[in-house]
Amino acid sequence: MNLHSLSFDGIVEFVTVADAKGFSEAARRLNCSVSHVSRQVSRLEQRLGTALFARSTRSVKLTETGQQYYLQCQELVSGLDQANERVTGTQFDLQGTLRISMAGSFAEQFVAPSLVTFAKQHPKLTVEVDFSSRHVNFVEDGIDFAIRYGRLQDSGLVARKLADRSLMAVASPDYLLKHGEPNHPKALAKHSCLITNNDTWLFEHDGKEMPVKVSGRFRCNNANALVEACKGGLGIGYMPKSSFQQAMNEGELVPVLAPFWTRKITSWVVYQNRKFLPLKARLAIDHLLTHFEGWQE
């Protein structure tokens, strides 16, 4: 490799434009003029001999080559940030956009408020939260990290424990009056169950796991909507305790099958396995882990 031929000019500007999805916003984040950013990116494209962005009057999008180059340069810039931070012993003013995917009442009630605190500590940082339980592609969707609970299937991701939680099965008094109370998880086959993303519910008995296939009249991937369905007498729900706590306190729901509940369902911070995690993501994750240390439901 010819080290004299290496040039880092324009790379920071290129990564910032890609993150900001525009030259004007990139210039604002870098505290420089739009013409400077445009000039630096154009010179970079000239040196590489290829277009990195597809420009129009309304949008700026990465080309296929630009997307591949961005993934490499993002690692480079993140690694440089980490190196500078270790040498100086200081934290940089976080800028840009932090994108997080999460779902469920735990995320709404506890994780989101903690991220609000983090955002207040870094006034130049934009935080975007996507409440969705869908499987995300961290690269294509531009997600820095996600909050998920339960068992994780993708071994290619890094998962760090956020909190241990407990599941709870509940029903409305009206539903139990009409249909009776199940005395064993297997009895759920005769009941209408309210299903989120999984129609196999995991219970425990004598220290052993007991998966039970369930079915019912209402399926929804939103915890609040499912709680309302449960309160309305549509069936039995089985979700983390925090989802039902308010309705339980108000007497609208009552517990069922308590001896069989699974008491250790973990919430995780999940992110792409990469050599350099962006500083904004790394500090946000550290903030969450510190906030939930010793947390109990």
Automatic annotation (TrEMBL):
One of its GO terms (molecular function) is DNA-binding transcription factor activity. It holds the Pfam family HTH_1. Signal peptide: none annotated. One of its GO terms (biological process) is DNA-templated transcription. Keywords: DNA-binding, Transcription, Transcription regulation. The keyword Flavoprotein does not apply. Residues 1-63 form the HTH lysR-type domain. The keyword DNA-binding applies. Belongs to the LysR transcriptional regulatory family. This is LysR family transcriptional regulator.
